[in-house]
Amino acid sequence: MRLLGRLRRPLALIAVAAGLSGLLTGVPDASPVALGTAADTTNTATVFYYTKTKNWSSTYLHYAPDGGSWTTVPGVVMEAACTDWVKKTVDLGSAAGLQATFNNGSGTWDNNGGNNYALGTGTITVKDGVIAHSDPCADTGTGSGNQATVYYSTATSGWTTANIHYAPTGGSWTTVPGVGMESACTGWWKKTLDIGTATSLKAAFNNGNGVWDNNNSADYTIPTGTTTVKDRTVTADAKDPCAAQAPDTQAPTTPTGVTASATNTSVVVSWNPATDDTAVTKYQLTRTGGTKGTVVTDVGSTVYSDTGLEEKTAYTYTVKAVDAAGNTSPASAAATVTTGEQAPAPASGTPLGTDPRKDPIYFVLTARFYDGDSSNNRGGSQDVKSGNAANNDPMFRGDFKGLVDKLDYIKALGFSAVWITPVVLNRSDYDYHGYHGYDFYKVDPRLESAGASYQDLINAAHAKGMKIYQDVVYNHSSRWGAKGLFTPTVYGVRDSQWSWYYDEKNEGFEYDGLTVESKSGKSYYNGDLWSTAEPSGNTCLNWGKPTGGKSAEGYTLYNCQWPSPTSGMFPKAYYHQCWIGNWEGEDSRSCWLHEDLADFNTENATVQNYLIGAYDKYIDMGVDGFRIDTAVHIPRVTWNRRFLPAIYDRVTQRFGTDAAKNFFVFGEVGAFVNDKWNRGSVNHSAQFYTWKERKEYSADDETASIEQYNYEEQLGTGNQPTSTNAFLSGNSYHTPDRSQFSGMNIIDMRMHMNFGDAQNAYNNGKDSDDSVNDATYNVVYVDSHDYGPNKSSTRYSGGTDAWAENMSLMWTFRGIPTLYYGSEIEFQAGKQIDCGPTCPLATTGRAYYGDHLAGSVTASDFGKVDSASGAVATTLAQPLVKHLQRLNQIRRAVPALQSGQYSTDGISGSMAFKRRYTSGTTDSFALVTVTGGATYTGIPNGTYRDAVTGDVQTVTGGTLTVAAPGKGNLRVYVLNGPGKIGSDGPYLK
Asked: Where is this region: Disordered (predicted)?
C-alpha cells in the first residue's frame, strides 16, 4: 500500500523541508480592530448546514452542549437560510461548543462517519463533512450602492469552501473570517458585494479553517465590476469564468517537434503537445511507406509505438491535433525513419490466460520470503538504525531465486497464483517493499540473480501451472522522482555535519540499488541527487538558505533540502503540488499521501505515457495480472480513460482477446471503514471502481476528474449502478452482464475490515455485493502487509480455530481466497505489521520467512506434497497447512466454489449458502455451511454428496438439513458430486 514501511521524518523537519513560501499560510494584512475582534455570541452557535448533496426534505440538528445533555432524537428542526443552506441558532449557556449530528427526521443521519461534529460558538458551516466559520447567506449583493462581483479560484489550493474577508476603500473590515462565497462552477467561488460609494476594496480569502491567501501579506485590491482572482493574479473587468462558452471554431496549433526512431522493425514516434483555446482531445497520426499504404491512427497521447513493420523500409509520419469540436490542425512537418532487420523473438513468457477465479492467491513480500542468493542482499542506509544489522537480517534478503526455489512449497499449499510486491527499481531510505519506484523500466537488481531474473521467475511459475500477479504503482514514485520522467535536485552541503549523508559525486556511476559505489562504499549512493549550485529554472524558494530549524541530530537544516509537493522542486505538469487534507475529499486523489510518495499528475499525457510504457514491458514478459496499489488515489475516470484500456489493449495485442479477458487486474481501494459506502462517499468506495463511466466529461483529464467526482458525489450512494452478476436466480446460474465493467476488480476491503470474526465478514461482504460489478472476482483476505482486520496495525491473532473458520469461509464463499505469507502457520501473529526503521524487521509482521522454508520440497500437484525434508517439512505438517491443502483440493474439484454465483434464499443457517456455475457441459451446484448447521429448502431434487465426509443425501422434497459441523469445519454437499475429496484433517472431518 502506501504509508506503512516508509521512513517518516519528524514533523518539524517536514515543515522546514517544505521550503514554505508563504502561500496560503498568512493572516490578512487587515485592520487590527477587525482581526482582533472577538465573537460577541460566546454562548450561542448559529449552525448552517449544506443540503444540496443530501436532498433531504427536512433537516434536524441533534446536539449536546459541551458537558451537557443531548437533545431528544431527532433534535431540533433547522430553518431555511438561503439556497442549499438551512440554519439553527442554539443557546449553549456557558458551554464553549457543542457536539452535533444531523438527520432528515426519518432515520437517515450524518454523524461525521461515527465521530459526530465538534462545533464551537459563533457562526459555523458544515458542508459535506467540512467545518468552517462564516455566514454563507450574508451579503447577497442586492443593495443600491456600488457592487463588486468577485470570482475566486480554488483549483490550485483545493479548498472545499471559500470566504472573502474585505474592507471597502475607506471602510471597515468584515469580521474574520469574512463572508462565505458561493460555488459558481468547478474550481470557482463567487460573491457579489455591496461596497456603498467606494470604487474598490481590499480583500483576502480563506477556507474558513485558518488557511489564508492574503497575496503574500499585501492583500488584494479589487475594483467594482466583475473581477477574477486566480493564482494571485487579479483580472479586472473579467469575463464570467463560468459563463457558457461560444461554439468552438478554432483549430489547435500544429504539432511540432515530431521525431521518429527505429529499433529493429518497431518505430517510436513522439511530438510536442499542441495547444488549443479549449483542449486537444486526440491526435491523428498518418503513416506512409511500406506495402500497406497510408495508415491513419488516432492517438490519445504524444507518444506512439508502431510495431510489426517491414524490414529495412522507410516510413514517414505526420501528426494533426484535434479538439473536442472536431477542429483539426494542419499536418506537422514530416519525420522519416528507416527500419532495421527483424529482431529475434524476445525471451518472454505467455500468460496462462485462464479464469482467475480458479486460482487461490499466495501473497509474498519478495524481499522477505526466501533468500536464494545472499550476494544481492542489501541493508541500505537504515540497516543499523533499524536494528536489522544486529540481527544479520538485511531488508533486501529474499529474491526471485528464493521464490523459484520455493514455488513447490506454495504449490504444495494448493495455491496456483502468487502475488508479488513491486519489482521496479526502488529508491528511498527503506525501500525493500517495492512501493518507492524510481526507475519503472528497470527490474530492481536486488531481486535478481544469474539464472533467476524476473523473466525466469515468470517462466518457472508458468511451467508449474502457477500465475504471477505483479504489484504495480501508478499513483506515485519515490521522493526522488521517476528516472526517465523527472528527478528533483535538492540542496546539499558536504560540511562537517552533512558529509555522512551526501556522497561525493561520481559522474561515471549510476545508482541501481545493488552496485557499491567506489568513493562512498555504499550501494545506496546519493551523489547524483544533490547540488550546492541552484539548478536552472529552479522554483524552490530560498535555495540553500538555512531554515532556522535543526534536524533530529541538531544539524542545520536548509531550504530545498528535501523534496516535497509545496517546495517547488517538482514540475506541476508531472507531479501534484499539495498535501492531502481530507482523506475522503477530492484532494485525496490529487495530492501527496506522504513525503516518500511523490504523487504523479496522472492526468498529464506525458506521465500517462511513461507509466503505460513501463507496465507494457511487464505485460510483454507474460505476467498474468496486476494488483494495483493506491488505486483510490487516482480518479476513476483516469483509470477508465487511460490506464485500464491501455492494459487491455496491450494484452490483446500481444496475446489475444481471451488472454486479455482473463488478465486479472485488482485494485487496492483503501476504504478502511465498515460501511457499505466509505463515509457516504461513492468516489472513495471500493465497488465504485468496478464500473465504467455513465456520462461524458471534458476532454481534459484534469477537468474531467473534477467533473466526475462532483457528478457522482451529487448523485450519492442511492443512485449508483447495481448488479446481479454474483447472485443466482433462484437455483439457476445466469450469464453475467459485464458490459459496464471497468476492467478493474477489487480487494474486498469490507470483508477484510470485518474479519475479526468470520460471521461478521460474511454478513458485511454480502451486503456490498449488489453494488460491485461482479463480486465473484473480489480478492478476499484476512490481513496483509498493511493492516489486520478493523485497520489493526498487527497481524491477525484470533487463534488457530478462528483462522480455520476464516479459511473455510474464504475458500467456499464467492471471491478469490488470498493468504499473506506465513499465515498458514500463524507467523508473527499479534506482531506489529510494520514500524519502518524504528525497530528490527524480525520483530514485525514483515519478518523473514525463510527459516521456516529451509530444506527441500517437491509438489507435482496442488495441495499435495511429494517429498519434504528439513524445516520446510515441519512447516508443512502444521494444522492450518493441512487445512489449507484440503480446502484447495475441494475448491479445485468443485467449479461452483470457484466461479459460481450464490444465494441465501430458502436457507436457514449463520454462514450457509448455495452456489452454482453452469458453462457448456459443466453444471456444478453446491450447498455450503461453515461451522453451524443449516436447512436448505426449495433446492433441486437429486443425490447430494458431501465433499468433506462423503455423506450421501437423497433429496426428494426439495429440502436438506445439515447438522453443525463445528468451528472451522464445513459441509459441501454437491449435486451429483464426486463425494469425499482428500483425507480428514484437524478441522475438515
From this structure: 240-259, 332-356
